[in-house]
Structure formats: structure tokens, C-alpha cells
Specification:
- This protein is α/β, with parallel strands linked by helices and 214 residues long.
- The chain has eight helices and ten strands.
- The protein has two domains: 78 residues, Orthogonal Bundle (Arc Repressor Mutant, subunit A), CATH 1.10.10; 113 residues, Rossmann fold.
- Strands 6-7-5-4-8-9-10 form a seven-stranded mixed beta sheet. It has a three-stranded antiparallel beta sheet with strand order 1-3-2.
- Strand 6 and strand 7 form a beta hairpin.
Length: 214
């Protein structure tokens, strides 16, 4: 949708929160919800909710609220959760295996195809039904099958080079858990650099602020 091009990253970052909340309401059988109720549950303002939804044409009527099923379907469409995207995982170490075992890729819009690793002791093994293949097969596989996403859970030394080669083979997005940020020039492929410590350090700062104010 054309309107999506102008949507800020801040708005986009809130969409998964809205989707999770509306999913819970849907599972509970709730039929309708107001912007005020959403705002109170998510620590936002009703005005912010309405502004965010209006970026995509809006989902409700003033004084009438939002139909939960319609909002659920609309958010799923905006996020692309109904497009059956596919993914691979690169690096089947402890973190990679933990993601394969515990993370709901399908619920987040991606079907995991395979994981790839250079460690011969794990090649051929499967975790939660996802088989580990030799990394030597990876680029040919990506070129042939065109998965949308690569999840990087390998050591950071060669990650930028691997990321670039994956993009050249057709990967459309990177979810980077290597510990080092990856920024690649001359590409518009989105890269999410994940750092588990960031939220914890933010909490540390906030706790310190509370202590210092006493």
C-alpha cells in the first residue's frame, strides 16, 4: 500500500504490540475494543492509537470503537503475516538451537526452512523439526529457493561478508544476533541488529534514576 511508504519507524515498531494485544482479545472472544482500552493496556494514549491506525486508513468509527476481528486481520495484513514468508538460520550453536526450539517463527510471519552450520557434529541433526545442513550448501540453496529472511546466530568475525553474499543470492532481510551491528552500503535490504543487553542496560539506567531521586 502506498500509504505505508511514509509511515515512521516509531509507528511500525508499535504495530507488533497492537497485534499481540488484539490477538489476546480475539482469543478471549472479545468483539469490540476502544482506542482508550488499547491505550490503557499498552501504556499509550488513545490519541496515539488513533494516529497510528490512521496511517493505514483507520479501522474504526468515532464513538464506535474497533471490531476486534477486523482489526486483527488488518494488522496481520499490514505486518505481512499472511504472506507465508520463509527463513533460514545461519549458525546452529547454543543461541541458534534455542531459537529453533523456542521461538515461534510461524507466528511472527516466517516458516523456517533449514539451519546451516559448519560444525559436522550437528549437520544432519534436527531441532524442532528443522534440519541442520552443511554451510557449504547455503548459498546455492538461497539462490535456488529464495528464502526471504536469514537469521544470523554465528560469531561476528565473518558476519558482514556472509550477510553481503546472502543478499547477493536474494535474501530480503537479516535478523542479526551476532553481537556486532551490521551495516552494509549500497543495499536497501532491512537489517535488525539485536542486542539482548540493551533492554537490560536501559532498565539499569531507570533503576539508577529511581535510586538517585530518593
Amino acid at each position: 500500500m502506498d500509504k505505508k511508504q511514509a509511515v515512521s519507524r516509531a509507528v511500525i515498531s508499535r504495530l507488533p504490540r497492537y497485534y499481540r494485544y488484539v490477538s489476546i482479545l480475539r482469543d478471549k472472544g472479545v468483539q469490540r475494543v476502544s482506542s482508550r482500552a488499547i491505550a490503557e493496556s499498552l501504556g499509550l494514549t488513545a490519541s496515539q492509537i488513533r494516529q497510528d491506525f490512521n496511517c493505514f486508513g483507520g479501522f474504526g468509527q468515532q464513538g464506535y470503537g474497533y471490531q476486534v476481528e477486523k482489526l486483527y486481520q488488518g494488522l496481520a495484513e499490514i505486518l505481512g503475516l499472511n504472506r507465508e514468508r520463509t527463513a533460514i538460520l545461519v549458525g546452529a550453536g547454543n543461541l541458534g538451537r534455542a531459537l529453533l526450539k523456542n521461538f515461534d517463527f510461524v507466528g511472527s510471519g516466517f516458516r523456517m526452512l533449514y539451519a546451516f552450520d559448519a560444525d559436522k557434529t550437528v549437520v544432519g541433526c534436527a531441532f524442532s523439526g528443522i534440519r541442520i545442513r552443511d554451510v557449504s550448501e547455503m548459498y546455492d540453496f538461497v539462490s535456488l529457493h529464495k528464502p526471504d529472511l536469514a537469521v544470523l546466530t554465528l560469531s561476528p568475525e565473518h558476519a558482514p561478508e556472509i550477510a553481503r553474499r546472502l543478499i547477493d543470492c536474494g535474501i530480503k532481510g537479516l535478523w542479526n544476533f551476532t553481537g556486532d551491528d551490521i551495516y552494509l552500503e549500497n543495499t536497501d535490504v532491512p537489517i535488525e541488529n539485536m542486542h539482548f543487553s540493551d533492554n537490560l542496560m536501559t532498565l539499569c539506567y531507570q533503576i539508577n534514576e529511581l535510586d538517585d531521586s530518593e
